[in-house]
Amino acid sequence: MSAVFVRVALDHPLPTLFDYRYDLAPRPEAGLLVRVPFGRRDVVGLICEVTTQSDVPADKLRAVEAICDACAPLSGEWRALAAFAAEYYQRGLGEVALPALPQALRDASRWARLFAPAERYQLLPAGRAVLPDALPARAHALRRLAEALAAQPALAAADARALHPKASTTLAEWQSKGWVVREEKDDAPELPDELTNDALLPRLTQEQQEAVDAITAARSFAPFLLHGVTGSGKTEVYLHALAGLLHARPDAQALVLVPEINLTPQFEAAFRARFAALPEGAIVTMHSGLAEGERVRNWLAAHTGRARIVLGTRLAILASMPGLALIVVDEEHDPAYKQQEGLRYSARDLAIYRAKQREIPVVLGSATPSLESWWQAEQGRYTRLTLSRRAVAEAVLPSVRLVDLEEERRRGRASIEGLSGPLVAALKSRLERGEQSLVFLNRRGYAPILSCDACGWVAGCPRCSAYVVLHKPERNLRCHHCGWEARIPKSCPDCGNVDIAPMGRGTQRVEETLASAVPGARVLRIDADSTRRKGSAQALFSDVHAGEVDILVGTQMIAKGHDFQRVTLVGVLNADTALFSHDFRASERLFAQLMQVSGRAGRSGLPGEVVIQTRYPRHALYHALARHDYVGFANSTLTERRDAHLPPFVYQALLRAEGRTLEAALGFLQQAATAFAPLPGADRVTVYDAVPLTIVKVFNVHRAQLLLECASRAALQTALRAWQPELRSLKGVLRWAVEVDPLDI
Ligand code: ADP
Ligand code: ZN
Ligand code: ZN
Q1: Which residues form the pocket of ligand 1, taking CB atoms under 6 Å from any ligand atom?
Q2: pLDDT value at residue 189
Q3: Which residues line ion ligand 3, judged by CB < 5 Å?
Q4: Which of ligand 1's atoms lies nearest the C-alpha of 205?
Q5: CB 680 within 8 A of CB 719
Q6: Cβ atoms of residues 440 and 558 within 8 Å
């Protein structure tokens, strides 16, 4: 018999597969996980090829130590998806494939336990007749095992092992005597007669019906852009499309992505209510907030096909789903779909690739689509489905009012700590009517700056080139970039002046101001600080839904997706800063954010109002917002982008470098640029000068980047690929990484 070798992908930056000898009993197969020695450690890898020869000299080859054959291999299709992501984002295959698996699968010591629950033993009548009497009286462990078998319909192998360490051997023996039978419990997906109770469903609007029909009619790759104003009932469209699919095919699976963990409970509840007839375990969630056990259970449910609906955040895009038949990306414009560390992928873009790979429909939903997706629809590459009105018959889009802060000041009108008179009056009237308000500003903490009037000292982070934020409830100063914390000084550390004062406002300060400006109001703050504990965000949102809150103040966490029924007023503070950002995407992001947060008002039929405080009431962005004119905003912004040769009309990539000094980082980038010039395809790529990042130093590391731009995606990809070995040979920085399609520049 000839020797067998396997080529294994490991989570390692080298973009190669690693060869190992294979001489274990179970048959090796591409897609199975193995434990292999690597350097001095043992690691888990993914078999990509099984061969009978290896170029590695026999004395250098090491052997596979264990194979995980209890779980079906990851399909060739899944591996191709991982390979595409690796290729596109300039990484090694293993760097994509392995981190995509739940941690428990990447720890070989846990494999046995993971798959045990499916294996169960049932006591047969022949066994019942002789057990436990046939056992020696002193064999306590064996007797306990027999009693446990008699006491329940089926005993899980894991439980059997807990009763008796040699249970597997004993049970195999008993099975050969015909006393017990082993069953693999693998719930085959059943299809109930009626998945949904149609009588309870709202009648779809005509626009919703047309959207559902278009999606359910698709039989191959079909990208849809579901452009629906806030409150137009996009969720209902997803639910109907899902119902159609789950009905039609008992093995079909759907993947629904949401941008934030906090939005999963709302969707999960809607899915469970609508598809209550689906068997246990048919709807699973996948996000970083799950406990490890649950994460791997849900992953396996998707992998075996038992899960019919997988609801998750961006990481779920790499779930193994053999029956995948529909992908939904809700709030597709949301920057949270972009992973910002490690493999910097866009889950939305991978969703499109995955749908194409599987020849299935994919629905991108949003009230404010990304300009990338909008442009695809404009060109006819995505089919546009429009929901132009709110679904609830009486609900109309809120009216938008701009409060001119300059004019308020000129006329000497009173404001309270940054809350203008008109906003305070509007808040009070909502309180009187028993309606809820929402106050939005994108800055957490109490004040972004603590400074000394006498000498000009400003509290900064010793490790970063950034100011630190004053946090009042926690009574400290915090760096939002590196996490550095310090007590609030009693006097200026430079001149001793005791009159140091907070400048500017964050959510904590606004919360404090609201409590005094609107007496009697129950104010609740929701931001990253108030929801740090697991599950606390959910509890806070429940309070809002239960009507136990009058004014909700918070960051973008409150702006997205939530279906608040009683909110009729939205106040927006401090939006102006984003109008003049150096980032060309800042206005797109601001518009989307304001449109989303405005969309929280007036969803149930009570008239809604949005009050925006600004120094630039004539700015075109605010005007488009007041007219709810996404289309106008999108088209004029696209024209600007085209004129300025910016995405989506060109493709970009960044090379980021981190060094002990800024000179080191910039020097590395300069060498990299020199190495890039002669590469194939490079003549079509514009390479800009290396520049420091706006916040150049974080945690004592200096950061700089090099921007590359090209009108052809293919040419850029070719050049980037050829650049990798050159980059690996350069030295002098702590870290470097290539980022394709960056969102923050
Ligand atoms: P979107 O995600 O588009 O902002 P939602 O899906 O949250 O909107 O729906 C907004 C509200 O409209 C929800 O309360 C939902 O129950 C309701 N709704 C959706 N479709 C209909 C319909 N056809 N008839 C009545 N109410 C509907
Ligand atoms: Zn001072
Ligand atoms: Zn810092």
Answers
A1: 202-205, 208, 228, 230-236, 391-392, 563, 603
A2: 42
A3: 461, 463-464, 479, 481-482, 484
A4: 23
A5: yes
A6: yes
Three-state DSSP at 613 gives strand
Tell me the torsion sign for CA atoms 327, 332, 335, 336. Answer: negative
Under 8 Å between Cβ of 630 and 368:
yes
Other Cβ atoms less than 10 A from the Cβ of 31: the count is: 17
Residue ranges for the chain with pLDDT beneath 50: 187-191
* Whether the Cβ atoms of residue 384 and residue 245 lie closer than 8 Å to each other: no
Half-sphere exposure of 486 (CA within 13 A, CB side): 16
| 548 close to 531: Cβ distance less than 8 angstroms | no
**How far is residue 503 from each of residues 415, 455, 494, 516, measured CA to CA in Å?**
16, 15, 18, 19
Interatomic CA distance for residues 336 and 30, integer angstroms:
33
CA neighbor of 377 nearest in space, from 259, 234, 226, 235 = 226
Residue 229 CA: nearest ligand 1 atom is: 3
Cβ atoms 90, 738 nearer than 8 A = yes
pTM: 0.89
Among 674, 78, 605, smallest CA distance to 392 is for 605
CA distance 122 to 151: 10
Residue 464 assigned ligand-binding role: yes
Report all structural domains of the chain as residue ranges with CATH numbers, in order of start. Answer: 5-111 (3.40.1440.60), 119-184 (no CATH), 198-387 (3.40.50.300), 399-447+504-633 (3.40.50.300), 651-740 (3.30.70.260)
- Give the mutation target among 198, 225, 236, 366 for probing the ligand 1 site: most ligand atoms within 8 A of CB: 236
Tokens 């915090």 identify what position?
A: 478
Predicted local confidence at residue 190, as pLDDT? 46
- Residue 188 has a pLDDT of 45
Q: Are strands 41-51 and 119-123 parallel, antiparallel or unpaired?
A: unpaired
Report residue 713 CA to chain centroid gap.
Answer: 25
Ligand 2 centroid–CA 484 distance in Å is: 22
d(CA 169, CA 449): 68
Q: What is the pLDDT of residues 122-178, one digit of tens each?
A: 888 888 888 888 888 888 888 888 888 888 777 877 678 777 877 878 888 888 888
Residue located via tokens 């917002």: 625
Q: Nearest C-alpha to atom 13 of ligand 1 is from which residue?
A: 233
Structure confidence by residue, pLDDT tens digits, 191-239: 455 555 565 678 999 999 999 999 999 999 999 999 999 999 999 999 9
Q: Which two tokens stand for residue 145?
A: 């095992």
How far away, in angstroms, is 447 Cα from ligand 3 center? 16
